[in-house]
Specification:
Elements lengths: L1 H11 L2 H9 L4 H29 L2 H7 L4 H8 L3 H13 L3 E3 L5 E3 L1 H5 L4 H16 L3 H6 L6 H5 L13 H25 L7 E5 L5 H9 L4 E6 L1 H13 L6 E5 L13 E5 L7 H14 L5 E6 L8 H15 L7 H10 L4 E5 L8 E6 L4
Parallel strand pairs: 3-4, 3-6, 4-5, 6-7
Antiparallel strand pairs: 1-2, 7-9, 8-9
Helix pairs in contact: 2-3, 5-6, 8-11, 11-12
């Protein structure tokens, strides 16, 4: 197979062959698809900025309220008519908007998917920091990790004493995680029944958005959360506002150095492990093993490298995102399972999720004996 691929790539690198393949009826569809894929790689940043403009102008919400003409949108959004036309046409080419036969503009299929999904919109806005760090990708690769716009945003990533961070340093990233957590929680809830447990400890649980989504699905479940002290304080406020104060406990500390609270028969890491390097991850898994009783279980939920049908998400997107962040790396499910075994868990398995691109789920058990 390697020899065949080497031959194929060698032939494809020949300009005369590419010109012939583009003309020959049997190879023309493949040649056109490859050309489109390569162009999309070149133009991907432009596509993302079209989406960012739509989000910042709140165009999707406006079109969701009612169809609108190009002139009306230009006036309402204070965008020159010609520029408004270009944005609408570009968004239509990306399936974000659509023009009806009467000339009115409405949502396209991808624009409609943005409605009621604030987590995606928040991530679109957040990517301005990532793009700033990627302005010179070679410089990013050659420099020491950290010290970038993205690592400064994730304050704990470069802090010597993350537990001492002030409330203002954790507010933005905590709010971002809370906004995007419901769509991850929906994936996990579709894959796992939390009613079989009596207490769940969510480690690195942020403002408690994940636990707040789990709570209605498992009314008798005790909710426990562990995060940095200033983040944990935000979780306390969220639980109180949701009427969950009586069934929740919040613990503040640094999970890279402090032992985890005991008392839960289920511990979860939701979008936590891929933010950290291997030594920290292995330490976290061992701490979870020590905190769980015999027969207890660990649940890991996060995007994973090697996801079938979403391969670029792992190594390309998260690979460079975490490089700019200054720590962590995307991992395959098999890598995490090997680390779980090294941490002392008896067995682990993957659970199917409706949208593996968003998250995959692993569960690992503590031996009863």
């Amino acid at each position: 197979m390697d020899r065949f691929r080497a031959w194929r790539e060698g032939v494809t690198a020949n300009p005369r062959f590419r010109a012939w393949a583009a003309r020959f009826p049997l190879t023309r569809p493949v040649a056109r698809r490859r050309a489109r894929q390569l162009f999309d790689l070149c133009a991907g940043f432009v596509y993302s900025q079209v989406l960012a403009a739509c989000v910042r102008l709140r165009l999707f919400e406006m079109l969701h309220e009612s169809p609108a003409s190009e002139a009306a949108l230009a006036l309402r959004l204070a965008v020159p008519p010609e520029a408004m036309g270009r944005l609408l046409a570009a968004a239509a080419a990306l399936d974000l908007t659509r023009q009806r036969q009467d000339g009115m503009w409405v949502l396209g299929p991808l624009g409609a998917a943005m409605i009621g999904n604030p987590g995606i919109a928040a991530m679109v806005e957040h990517h301005a920091l990532l793009y700033a760090d990627l302005a010179d990708p070679v410089a990013l690769l050659r420099r020491d990790r950290g010290g970038n716009a993205l690592s400064n945003y994730w304050a704990y990533a470069g802090a010597d004493a993350p537990e001492a961070l002030g409330a203002e340093r954790v507010a933005d990233y905590s709010a971002l995680m809370a906004a995007s957590q419901p769509m991850v929680a929906a994936e996990v809830l579709a894959s796992y029944d939390f009613r079989r447990h009596r207490a769940l400890l969510d480690v690195g649980g942020g403002e408690g958005a994940f636990l707040a989504e789990v709570a209605p699905a498992a009314p008798d479940l005790r909710l426990m959360l562990f995060d940095l002290p200033q983040v944990a304080a935000r979780a306390t406020a969220r639980f109180a506002s949701r009427g969950l104060a009586d069934r929740s406990q919040v613990f503040g500390g640094d999970f890279s150095t402090d032992p985890l609270p005991q008392g839960a028969d289920l511990i979860s890491f939701v979008r936590v492990l891929h933010d950290h390097d291997d030594a920290v991850v292995l330490g976290l898994l061992r701490a979870a093993r020590a905190a769980l009783p015999p027969g207890g279980r660990l649940l890991i939920a996060e995007p994973m490298a090697g996801t079938s049908g979403a391969e670029p998400m792992g190594e390309a997107y998260f690979g460079f995102y975490l490089l700019a962040m200054g720590r962590g790396r995307p991992r395959r499910a098999e890598e995490l399972q090997a680390m779980l075994a090294a941490a002392g868990f008896a067995r682990s398995r993957a659970l199917p999720t409706p949208t593996p691109l968003l998250t995959q789920v692993l569960v690992a058990d503590v031996s009863i004996t």
